[in-house]
């Protein structure tokens, strides 16, 4: 008996992801270098804004103590807060203020690796006989050349810089440690039961404080194939000595054992929300082992098929895609979870991806607002738990081509641009392509400071403080304050999101829990689907993913009324049966007659 449409708070919750450095600095806040940096107190000050948007759960990317080599995804102390963000007391206050508003806080759990400045790692690297040595993955060099220079144990490439090895040599003890993201992020050795106990302890610490649950960073990378085989050659070996080794550590041999243990030891004792970040897995069987209703692992995961639609073999590269592919990815995972009693997360942005309005629609001044609303309509009408990413609700777009690469602060972009400048130094065309890839794919696009108002620094930090990262140049016109207050013939992007989230809650039986049927599948531009509640209430969603007018045959019974379109404020006056004309990037939602 499927439990897919059994109501649960974590299924219906609206989650908003905060990228803490870029969300809101409280008055007077600056980091050590005197630059404006978001803070926990800043987050607390914006809870009313989030509440009015329709948010239930605030998930913040890591705010723990960290050298910030990878913006907090390199943790030096799991039980402390980095002073640039505030203190544990500030988090206690945030939890309490959330509670007052019937909201909750979700933390990021980053336990595939720590920072190389975590005391566990400092102990581990201090000597081969240190009791913490085996908490990380140490290996002898594969070989040494005649000059004695060591070679890494295998050819795996670093994920946030594929020109480099995933192994880092430590001269003190003459061994390499595994660091699949960057040398500053040594991988923990989950084979060691003491490591697992330490992770359970961290989780309980935060759950006991009242956090709602966790987003678990690359949690499907915790088990590695123990023979550490050579990776197949997929990147040009003339320019790439190292190759992606992901197949040997994504959903590795013991991952499910560890996830079950996590469930038994921690999660089963609390009423939590859990979402696993699981890149690189496509097998339905494998995913259901984690998110199936009886899996005893996690509530849901992030499936990356949609955000990887333009990814060939590494993220900083481009691949062509079309609307049919987008439709089939979305429909596939909607159907799989319904048929197999799993659960979806619904998202199209996060801190590791460019802005959706630039990626899937047209972010020019003429169409940006329509595109952002089109994506909002799609997401607010899909089954699963919905995640909104900071700034998505006002349609922030990618930074423009004119921005110098030095404006980009992310380690992945920096490594990528260094690689381009080294290997393509005599090839201006490839260098130009590199710049284009940065403009289209860099993670930085999601990390520009939040555009709150037309006040100096967009209201992100004090007027006399330089923000840590350049704010998008359009903040005077594109900002939350203007969009919240907007009065016109149609809704602002923010108001459209607010409307969509409210509608989703009011009709949770349809949009959160309902059946899903794609219609007119062969259409090359328009994505159409019908959502149906258990009681038989039906809604038709029609999304024109093109900049041209489209004619589309309504395949259902007559539409009773068009509840909204991204071109109108309220109900839309559109054909109720037969041929429907959709304007460029138009999306509409219709109630189908019973
Ligand atoms: C995934 C995170 O989302 C990303 O930002 C980070 O760089 C890696 N995991 C490493 O923690």
Measured distance between first and last alpha carbons? 27 Å
Please tell me how large the radius of gyration is: 24 Å
Number of helices: 16
Strand line-up across the major sheet: 16-15-14-6-3-1-18-17
Low-confidence stretches: none
Give the beta-strand count.
26
Average pLDDT figure: 97
Q: Could you walk me through the main structural features you see in this protein, from its secondary elements to its overall organization?
A:
Strands 16-15-14-6-3-1-18-17 form an eight-stranded parallel beta sheet. A five-stranded antiparallel beta sheet has the order 20-21-22-26-24. The chain is globular. Strand 20 and strand 21 (about 525-530) form a beta hairpin. The mean pLDDT is about 95. The protein is α/β, with parallel strands linked by helices and about 600 residues long. Helix 11 runs parallel beside helix 15 and helix 12 (about 410-425) runs antiparallel to helix 13 (about 430-440). It is about 25% helix and about 20% strand. It has 16 helices and 26 strands. 1-deoxynojirimycin binds next to loops. 1-deoxynojirimycin binds near residues 181 and 351. InterPro entries: GH (IPR017853), GH13_cat_dom (IPR006047), Glyco_hydro_b (IPR013780), O16G_dom_2 (IPR045857), SusG-like_C (IPR056300). Keywords: Glycosidase, Hydrolase, Maltose metabolism. It comes from Lithohypha guttulata. Belongs to the glycosyl hydrolase 13 family. This is Glycosyl hydrolase family 13 catalytic domain-containing protein.
């Amino acid at each position: 008996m499927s439990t897919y449409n059994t109501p649960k708070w974590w299924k219906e919750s609206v989650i908003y992801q905060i990228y803490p450095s870029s969300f809101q600095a409280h008055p007077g806040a600056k980091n050590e270098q005197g630059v404006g940096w978001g803070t926990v107190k800043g987050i607390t000050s914006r809870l009313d804004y989030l509440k009015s948007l329709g948010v239930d759960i605030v998930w913040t990317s890591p705010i723990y103590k960290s050298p910030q080599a990878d913006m907090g995804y390199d943790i030096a102390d799991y039980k402390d807060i980095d002073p640039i963000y505030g203190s544990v007391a500030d988090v206690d206050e945030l939890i309490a203020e959330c509670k007052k508003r019937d909201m909750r806080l979700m933390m990021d759990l980053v336990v595939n690796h720590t920072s190389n400045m975590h005391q566990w790692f400092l102990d581990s690297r201090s000597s081969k006989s240190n009791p913490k040595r085996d908490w990380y993955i140490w290996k002898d060099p594969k070989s040494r050349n005649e000059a004695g220079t060591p070679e890494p144990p295998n050819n795996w490439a670093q994920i946030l810089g594929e020109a480099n090895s995933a192994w880092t040599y430590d001269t003190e003890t003459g061994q390499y440690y595994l660091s699949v993201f960057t040398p500053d992020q040594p991988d923990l050795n989950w084979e060691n039961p003491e490591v697992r106990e330490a992770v359970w302890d961290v989780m309980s610490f935060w759950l006991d404080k009242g956090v709602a649950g966790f987003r678990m960073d690359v949690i499907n990378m915790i088990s590695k194939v123990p023979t550490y085989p050579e990776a197949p050659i997929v990147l040009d070996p003339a320019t790439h000595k190292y190759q992606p080794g992901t197949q040997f550590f994504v959903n590795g041999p013991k991952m499910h054992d560890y996830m079950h243990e996590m469930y038994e030891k921690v999660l089963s004792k609390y009423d939590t929300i859990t979402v696993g970040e699981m890149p690189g897995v496509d097998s339905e069987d494998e995913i259901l082992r984690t998110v199936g209703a009886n899996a005893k692992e996690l509530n849901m995961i992030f499936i990356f098929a949609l955000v990887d639609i333009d990814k060939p073999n590494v993220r900083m590269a481009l691949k062509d895609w079309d609307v049919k592919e987008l439709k089939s990815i979305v429909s596939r995972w909607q159907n799989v979870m319904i048929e197999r009693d799993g659960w979806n997360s619904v998202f199209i942005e996060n801190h590791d991806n460019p802005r959706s309005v630039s990626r899937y629609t047209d972010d020019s001044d003429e169409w940006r607002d329509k595109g952002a609303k089109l994506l909002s309509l799609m997401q607010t009408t899909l089954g699963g738990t919905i995640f909104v990413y900071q700034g998505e609700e006002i349609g922030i777009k990618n930074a423009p081509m004119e921005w110098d690469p030095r404006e980009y602060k992310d380690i992945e972009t920096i490594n990528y641009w260094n690689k381009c400048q080294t290997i393509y130094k005599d090839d201006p065309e490839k260098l130009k392509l590199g710049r284009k890839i940065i403009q289209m794919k860099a993670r930085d696009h999601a990390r520009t400071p939040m555009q709150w108002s037309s006040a100096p620094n967009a209201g992100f930090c004090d007027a006399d403080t330089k923000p840590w990262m350049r704010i998008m140049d359009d903040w005077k016109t594109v900002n939350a304050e203007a969009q919240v207050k907007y009065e016109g013939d149609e809704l602002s992007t923010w108001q459209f999101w607010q409307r969509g989230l409210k509608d989703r809650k009011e009709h949770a039986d349809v949009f959160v829990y309902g059946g899903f049927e794609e219609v007119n599948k062969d259409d090359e531009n328009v994505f159409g689907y019908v959502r149906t509640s258990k009681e038989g209430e039906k809604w038709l969603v029609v999304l024109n993913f093109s900049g041209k007018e489209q004619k589309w045959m309504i395949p259902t019974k007559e539409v009773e009324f068009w509840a909204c379109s991204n071109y109108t404020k309220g109900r839309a006056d559109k054909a109720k049966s037969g041929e429907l004309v959709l304007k460029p990037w138009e999306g509409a939602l219709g109630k189908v007659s019973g």
